[in-house]
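User: Hello! My lab partner asked me to get a predicted holo structure for this protein. The small molecule is 2-acetamido-2-deoxy-beta-D-glucopyranose, SMILES included with the sequence. Please write out the structure tokens.
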Amino acid sequence: MASFNVYFILVALFVMSGAVIATEEADIIKKYDCENETKMGQYCIMEIFTSIFKIGDVTDKCCGELMVLGKICHAALVKRTLQLPQFKNMEESKIVAKSIQIWNKCAVVTKSVSPSPSP
Ligand SMILES: *[C@@H]1O[C@H](CO)[C@@H](O)[C@H](O)[C@H]1NC(C)=O
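Assistant: Hello! Below are the structure tokens for the protein in complex with 2-acetamido-2-deoxy-beta-D-glucopyranose.
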């Protein structure tokens, strides 16, 4: 049955990628409850992810959520993503630099909360 085979392949991929992931990041993510949706919603996860690994800006709203998530979680989630087979080919130093850059930019944005909305 085709559906069974697809399911089997998915499980095999999941198990293999799980084995590759270093436990250090996984421990941090668990300890700090980094994947809790009350800290950062699915929308902002995607926005920040795209901004780091592809291209694009992070909105003030998602910058705010990033600050709630915290620097430790931010770094751990980026590092864990870099260990996934799909992202292995990316330059780690470049991605880490980008993630720090985004963090710093968001820290400035959220600190200077001015009531004047940008057009
Ligand atoms: C997420 O965080 C909230 C508030 O700290 C907590 O009550 C909730 O149990 C957490 N959810 C999970 C899935 O850990």
